[in-house]
């Protein structure tokens, strides 16, 4: 009888997915959840977007975007056609057949996982869970989270996973601002608690992209952490080689580009002022934290973290040296920081190295301003509370500065003009390479 109920529940949900009759509920309408909602809507599914931030919900309902690289035309059309509904009412979770969790999983001040958002979300789901739903976690976390943290909180009141409801993990792979790859053409890793869970989750994601099934939720969780740890370690390597290259008088960008001509066995990574974004600065520490449970030290991860964290300090060091050569001290110098987004051409400033660079400059007595066409005003965050607005760039503004630090190389910047009117450029992105100006004023950091 139980097997028959299990089969009936699964079969019904699979048929609904195939006919696109399921309602997809997405919790968290940020850089991951909102694009996901758009792609499911474009494929013909009805979507309900949930978020605790009333500002986001109101902006969407009024046709305004809070993520600049996402086109509001698509969202407006979906809302108009009633393919997308957005709400702060989490009691409506029982309306969704497929619930996708896309909430933040930050680190604490002690560099340990902070699962408060995830656990609060799981509690709200458990209060509205019904037979025939699937819950899929997309937020990046350590191996075992889905099995150890979500499952016990959902499998209660005689609700059995793989029989009454289904639970899976499928890590987000969103790359904000990437014009080539998006949710529709990036394969989805999927791991289920049971084979039935994997089958249902795979069927759902197969409707929008290619699926790569793995044996368990733990394998799927570790896959995501491997991807970002790989990037963190390799970025740390080129960051360290950049510092060595400066001491040896070698252009590391020239070396990287030369090495990249090898058609096998090498992947180019590029140095910068430090790591930013919601993945690479955070995700490897989830893995190193979990590894301690097994009395295992992840030395590569920790060393890479130390190197990458040190890069903003190196930028400050190079700035002090360059100002000294101009017979100026950092204290009292007017510094313009170009870019606080963590990478070019996005309005995402999470974990941006620009913030710690500005913080250190201010602490050392510099007079700091910034410009970022993507981020007109700095918002308070867990770590920083700058009350600053973007300073418009003009020849007059640049000429007043003792130094300009290029933190983010946005496409809109005319670096030739910036160099022309500057006394000193601290270039952390190789953005001014090839500009035929007096190179004495350009310092690469």
How are the secondary structure elements laid out?
Blueprint lengths: L1 H17 L4 E5 L5 H10 L3 E5 L3 H8 L10 H9 L3 E4 L10 E4 L14 H11 L7 E4 L7 H10 L11 E4 L18 E5 L2 H12 L4 E3 L3 H32 L3 H8 L23 H9 L7 H27 L8 E5 L14 H11 L3 E5 L23 H5 L3 E4 L8 H7 L3 E3 L14 E3 L1
Parallel strand pairs: 1-2, 1-4, 2-3, 4-5, 5-6, 7-8, 9-10, 9-11, 11-12, 12-13
Antiparallel strand pairs: 6-7
Helix pairs in contact: 1-7, 5-6, 8-10, 8-11, 11-12
Summarize it:
The chain has 445 residues and is of the alpha/beta class.
Report on this model:
The protein is an alpha/beta fold. The protein folds into two domains: 2-215, NAD(P)-binding Rossmann-like Domain (Rossmann fold, 3-Layer(aba) Sandwich), CATH 3.40.50.720; 264-444, 3-Layer(aba) Sandwich (Rossmann fold). It has helices spanning 2-18, 33-42, 54-61, 72-80, 116-126, 145-154, 195-206, 217-248, 252-259, 283-291, 299-325, 353-363, 395-399, 415-421, and strands at residues 23-27, 46-50, 84-87, 98-101, 134-137, 166-169, 188-192, 211-213, 334-338, 367-371, 403-406, 425-427, 442-444. The chain has an eight-stranded mixed β-sheet with strand order 3-2-1-4-5-6-7-8, with helices on both faces. A five-stranded parallel β-sheet has the order 10-9-11-12-13, with helices on one face. Helix 5 links the parallel strand 4 and strand 5. The termini are far apart. The model has no long low-confidence stretch (mean pLDDT 93). This is UDP-glucose/GDP-mannose dehydrogenase. Its EC number is 1.1.1.22. Keywords: Membrane, NAD, Oxidoreductase, Transmembrane, Transmembrane helix. Belongs to the UDP-glucose/GDP-mannose dehydrogenase family. Residues 336-434 form the UDP-glucose/GDP-mannose dehydrogenase C-terminal domain.
């Amino acid at each position: 009888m139980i097997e028959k109920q299990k089969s009936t529940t699964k079969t019904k949900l699979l048929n609904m997915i195939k006919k696109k009759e399921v309602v997809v509920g997405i919790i968290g309408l940020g850089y991951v959840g909102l694009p996901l909602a758009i792609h499911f809507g474009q494929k013909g599914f009805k979507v309900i977007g949930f978020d605790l931030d009333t500002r986001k919900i109101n902006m969407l309902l009024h046709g305004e975007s809070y993520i600049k690289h996402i086109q509001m035309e698509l969202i407006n059309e979906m809302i108009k056609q009633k393919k997308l509904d957005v709400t702060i009412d989490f009691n409506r979770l029982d309306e969704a057949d497929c619930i996708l969790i896309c909430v933040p999983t930050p680190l604490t001040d002690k560099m340990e996982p902070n699962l408060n958002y995830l656990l609060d979300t799981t509690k709200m789901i458990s209060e509205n869970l019904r037979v025939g739903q699937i819950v899929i976690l997309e937020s990046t976390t350590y191996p075992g989270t889905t099995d150890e943290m979500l499952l016990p909180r959902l499998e209660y009141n005689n609700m059995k996973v793989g029989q009454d409801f289904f639970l899976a993990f499928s890590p987000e792979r969103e790359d904000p601002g990437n014009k080539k790859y998006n949710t529709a053409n990036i394969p989805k890793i999927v791991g289920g608690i049971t084979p039935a869970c994997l089958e249902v989750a795979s069927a759902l994601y197969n409707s929008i992209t290619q699926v790569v099934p793995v044996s368990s939720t733990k394998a799927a969780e570790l896959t995501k952490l491997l991807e970002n740890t790989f990037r963190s370690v390799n970025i740390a390597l080129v960051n360290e080689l950049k510092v060595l290259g400066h001491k040896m008088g070698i252009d590391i960008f020239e070396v990287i580009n030369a090495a990249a001509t090898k058609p096998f066995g090498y992947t180019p990574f590029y140095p910068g002022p430090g790591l930013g974004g919601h993945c690479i600065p955070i995700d490897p520490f989830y893995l190193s934290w979990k590894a301690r449970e097994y009395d295992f030290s992840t030395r590569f991860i920790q060393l890479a973290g130390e190197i990458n964290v040190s890069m903003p300090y190196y930028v400050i060091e190079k700035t002090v040296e360059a100002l000294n050569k101009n017979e100026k001290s950092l204290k009292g110098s007017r510094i313009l920081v170009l870019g606080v987004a963590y990478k070019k051409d996005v309005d995402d400033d999470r974990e941006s190295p620009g913030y710690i660079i500005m913080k250190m400059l201010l602490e050392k007595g510099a007079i700091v301003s910034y410009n970022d066409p993507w981020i007109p005003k700095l918002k308070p965050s867990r770590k920083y509370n700058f009350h600053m607005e973007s300073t418009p760039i003009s020849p007059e503004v640049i000429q007043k500065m003792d130094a300009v630090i290029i933190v983010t190389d946005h496409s809109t910047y005319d670096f030739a003009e910036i160099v022309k009117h500057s006394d000193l450029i601290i270039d952390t992105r190789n953005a001014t390479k090839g500009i035929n100006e007096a190179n004495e004023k350009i310092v690469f950091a």
